[in-house]
Amino acid sequence: MKGDRVEIVVDAGDTTRTYEVIATRAGRRVETAVRRGVVEVSEVTRSGSVVRTARFMATRVLALVEQPVPRDQADEEGAA
Questions:
Q1: How much is the average pLDDT of 8-19?
Q2: Within a domain: residue 76?
Q3: Distance of CA 9 to the CA centre of its chain
Q4: What total number of domains does the chain contain?
Q5: Spatial strand order in the sheet of 5-11
Q6: CA 32, CA 39: separation in Å to the nearest integer?
Q7: What is the pLDDT of residue 51?
Q8: Domain that holds residue 39
Q9: Is 2 exposed, middle or buried (0-12, 13-18, 19+ CB in 10 A)?
Q10: Any domain includes 77
Q11: What distances in angstroms separate CA 27 from CA 18, 24, 45, one per listed residue?
């Protein structure tokens, strides 16, 4: 759903870096998967097509924060 986002905090040696993957259009959602030591965050359309993907080594990921769109905002978008 538009507005869904996932924030990824990664260890970059002497510092940390933060990345965000955001569902940019209506009908899109953000999916997270951990496979074979790789964290994969993808923006996906209603039909299941992947629009873009971010991949990180699981050993480097410090935090993975899923932030769904607030319920009130989702209801307003659906009515419009």
A1: 94
A2: no
A3: 12
A4: 1
A5: 16-22, 5-11, 61-67
A6: 7
A7: 92
A8: 5-71
A9: middle
A10: no
A11: 25, 9, 6
Residue position matching structure tokens 């510092």: 15
The reply to whether 13 falls in a domain is yes
The span from the CA of 65 to the CA of 23, in Å, is 14
Percent of the chain with pLDDT over 90: 62
Give me 78's structure tokens: 């659906």
**What pLDDT score was predicted for residue 4?**
84
Q: How far apart are CA 60 and CA 72, in angstroms?
A: 35
Residue 79 counted as domain residue: no
Q: 10 Å Cβ neighbour count for 10?
A: 18
SS3 68: coil
Does the global pTM surpass 0.85?
no
